[in-house]
């Protein structure tokens, strides 16, 4: 069915074009026979298409009878205009071409909304065509109809059925597109509810999830996606994940984020992206998960977290807790690192690296030396300088915690200020050869000249 046939038209001249002559009296007899065929068509459809049968949906059954009657009226209108070709502009029994098409578009749309395919509707149309052709052949056997007239009338039957099939298909497609558009709109509205600054109430969230046909999970996480550089292809993810790609700060909402299946989907789907997975939280706290994910991206961009393709906030809780307030961290750094402020930039960086390593490795000079690729004597020489600058603060537990936080923040600040070359300089400071080795040798010479070590 569909586009293989030339569509029928309500234009009288087109209907009469190349049509064989059929006596008006014969047309009237055929008209009466067509009117009597409605009940037989309905029975044939009910027999062959179960969803339109007595046990099916009553609404569909009523639509079936209406559709059959409308199809017959259209066919009768073709016959009338063939019998009276000069009556151009006469009233169309179907209410006009626009009306009948809209009716069959509505039939197709109803099929889509009922969750059915068009197979049943098209099967019903074919059943009508079979009944109509069977009755036409029987009529031709009883009345003087030429083979050309029978062929022309049969062609009009199929044109009529094809018109109906095309209109119903258009209505089905339009309804499906509208449904998809509405469904996406409701999913976007659900994302807005979940990520609102004020936590949503449970009833409001439940209603929004139901409207979007999204099952509310026990816990979820929000994935923040870095919007840097040229646009990247949209990740291919499962329907259970809500997408917020069109938001100023792109994100995903992932139900049950710690299941192995979801982790696998995230890792594969976000390949090539730079993203952070927020902490798993109840749905009413989704906005907090997004804030943590955004913070993780920011910290990674500033060197305070490892810059990985996919950052899991659960693996960096301490850093997230410490670096939430940038202004407070800046004030802490200024106060704790004041003794280094008067040094040259290169000397300040050298001593800051040494002090941070010393704090990280529990004040073990040998481990610090291995980390920095210098001699332990060099470390001890630097530590004497640090003691002169900081006094006993570097051994006070409370001060040590604040110093480590300040030093980490200072390292990130220095990397931001230096730009892309910062990582290169950092590698040189930690490499066994090159600049770090030269500086270590100079320190060792100064140590020997000063006589002895700690």
Can you give a write-up of this model?
- With 454 residues, the chain is mainly alpha-helical.
- It folds into 3 domains: 12-180, Globin-like, CATH 1.10.490; 215-322; 326-450, no CATH class.
- Helix content is 63%, strand content 4%.
- The protein has 18 helices and 5 strands.
- It has a 5-stranded mixed sheet.
- It is rod-shaped and about 125 Å long.
- Residues 1-17, 88-95 and 421-454 have low confidence and may be disordered.
Largest sheet report:
5 strands, mixed
End-to-end CA span: 96 Å
What would you report as the Rg, rounded to the nearest angstrom? 40 Å
CATH architectural category of the largest domain: Orthogonal Bundle
What is the strand arrangement across the widest sheet? 2-3-1-4-5
Fold-level CATH name of the largest domain? Globin-like
Helix content bin: 55-70%
Uncertain ranges: 1-17, 88-95, 421-454
Got a strand count?
5
Number of domains: 3
Q: What is the highest CATH level, the class of the largest domain?
A: Mainly Alpha
- Work out the strand percent: under 5%
The secondary-structure class comes to: mainly alpha
Order of helices and strands: HHHHHHHHEEEHEHEHHHHHHHH
Based on CA inertia axes, which overall geometry fits?
A: rod-shaped
The count of helical stretches stands at 18
Average pLDDT rating: 78
């Amino acid at each position: 069915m569909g586009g293989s046939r030339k569509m029928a038209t309500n234009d009288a001249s087109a209907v009469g074009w190349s049509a064989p002559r059929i006596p008006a009296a014969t047309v009237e007899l055929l008209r009466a026979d067509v009117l009597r065929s409605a009940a037989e068509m309905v029975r044939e459809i009910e027999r062959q298409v179960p969803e339109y049968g007595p046990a099916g949906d009553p609404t569909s059954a009523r639509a079936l009878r209406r559709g059959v009657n409308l199809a017959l009226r259209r066919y009768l209108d073709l016959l009338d205009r063939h019998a009276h070709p000069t009556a151009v502009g006469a009233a169309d029994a179907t209410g006009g071409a626009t009306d009948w098409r809209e009716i069959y578009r509505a039939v197709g749309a109803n099929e889509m909304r009922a969750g059915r395919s068009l197979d049943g509707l098209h099967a019903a149309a074919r059943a009508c065509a079979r009944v109509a052709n069977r009755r036409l052949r029987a009529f031709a056997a009883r009345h003087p109809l030429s083979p050309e007239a029978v062929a022309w009338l049969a062609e009009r039957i199929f044109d009529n059925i094809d018109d109906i099939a095309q209109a119903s298909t258009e209505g089905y497609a339009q309804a499906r597109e509208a449904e998809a558009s509405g469904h996406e709109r409701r999913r976007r509205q659900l994302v807005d509810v979940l990520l609102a600054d004020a936590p949503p109430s449970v009833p409001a969230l439940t209603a929004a999830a139901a409207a979007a046909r999204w099952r509310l999970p026990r816990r979820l996480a929000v994935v923040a996606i870095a919007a840097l550089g040229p646009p990247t292809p949209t990740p291919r993810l499962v329907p259970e994940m809500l997408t917020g790609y069109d938001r100023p700060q792109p994100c995903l909402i992932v139900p049950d984020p710690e299941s192995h299946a979801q982790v696998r989907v995230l890792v594969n789907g976000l390949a090539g992206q730079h993203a952070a997975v927020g902490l798993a939280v109840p749905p009413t706290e989704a906005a907090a998960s997004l804030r943590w994910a955004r913070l993780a991206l920011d910290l990674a961009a500033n060197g305070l977290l490892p810059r990985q393709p996919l950052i899991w906030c659960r693996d960096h809780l301490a850093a997230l807790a410490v670096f939430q307030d940038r202004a407070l961290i800046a004030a802490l750094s200024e106060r704790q690192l004041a003794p280094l402020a008067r040094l040259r930039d290169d000397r300040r960086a050298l001593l800051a690296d040494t002090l941070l390593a010393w704090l990280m490795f529990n004040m073990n000079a040998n481990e610090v030396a291995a980390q920095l690729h210098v001699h332990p004597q060099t470390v001890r020489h630097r530590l004497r300088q640090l003691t002169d600058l900081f006094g006993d603060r570097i051994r006070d537990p409370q001060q040590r915690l604040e110093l480590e936080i300040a030093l980490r923040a200072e390292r990130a600040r220095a990397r931001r200020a230096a730009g892309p070359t910062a990582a290169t300089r950092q590698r040189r400071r930690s490499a066994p050869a090159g600049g770090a080795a030269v500086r270590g040798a100079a320190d060792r010479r100064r140590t020997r000249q000063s006589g002895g070590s700690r």
